[in-house]
Structure to design on (224 residues):
């Protein structure tokens, strides 16, 4: 069983829809990252969370430490949001990052 | 310019050759990382460094060598390239530490093909 599981693997939605991507983990962590990788390959860090909720524009990330679960939400989705979204957790034992496999999001106009 | 830069952006080499991928960051971040990304796999850690002159193996270190004589540079060397090392390589940096709120910053990637 992978230590970091993302769901869904693939998601296709229409422009304007509310998007939720989930990340569950099984190890003790000190923080969780959400990152975005565009088709061109560049990886951009969106959020780093250790508790609660963060918001940046149309993106919202939440984390529940007790349930070992985080979600990334996109409101009013747009085709330019099409990308792979990756969750990574920072282990509290050795500060190494464990990566999820990513969620490929396609937003159709 | 401030940021993290990788070079070259693309590289084609032959099996058995030595190849060095460069990574340079201007933030004086303590931590630097090398990842490879292959189809069907998430990012896999090759090596990381917590500070100058401190390096440690990641998940897939075999066939790679790193050094960190200066905080800002973290080159990755493939001593004798193999076809299985064809991949996209990403360098990243951060000030990861307890209590910090730092994000990870990634270079643009190096697409390496070993023929």
């Amino acid at each position: 069983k992978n230590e970091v599981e993302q769901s869904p693997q693939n998601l296709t939605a229409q422009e304007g829809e509310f998007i939720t991507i989930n990340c569950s983990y099984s190890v003790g962590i000190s923080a969780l990252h959400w990152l975005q990788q565009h088709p061109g390959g560049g990886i951009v860090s969106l959020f780093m969370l250790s508790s609660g909720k963060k918001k940046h524009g149309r993106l919202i990330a939440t984390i529940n430490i007790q349930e070992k679960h985080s979600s990334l939400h996109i409101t009013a989705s747009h085709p330019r949001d099409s990308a792979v979204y990756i969750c990574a957790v920072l282990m509290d034992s050795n500060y190494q990052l464990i990566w999820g496999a990513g969620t490929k999001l396609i937003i159709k106009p | 310019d401030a940021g993290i830069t990788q070079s070259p952006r693309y590289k084609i080499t032959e099996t058995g050759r030595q190849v060095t991928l460069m990574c340079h960051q201007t933030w004086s971040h303590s931590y630097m990382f090398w990842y490879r990304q292959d189809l069907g796999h998430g990012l896999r850690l090759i090596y990381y460094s917590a500070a100058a002159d401190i390096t440690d193996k990641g998940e897939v270190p075999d066939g790679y060598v790193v050094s960190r004589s200066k905080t800002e540079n973290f080159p990755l060397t493939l001593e004798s390239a193999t076809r299985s090392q064809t991949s996209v390589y990403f360098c990243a940096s951060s000030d990861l530490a307890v209590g910090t709120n730092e994000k990870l910053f990634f270079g643009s990637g190096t697409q390496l093909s070993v023929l």
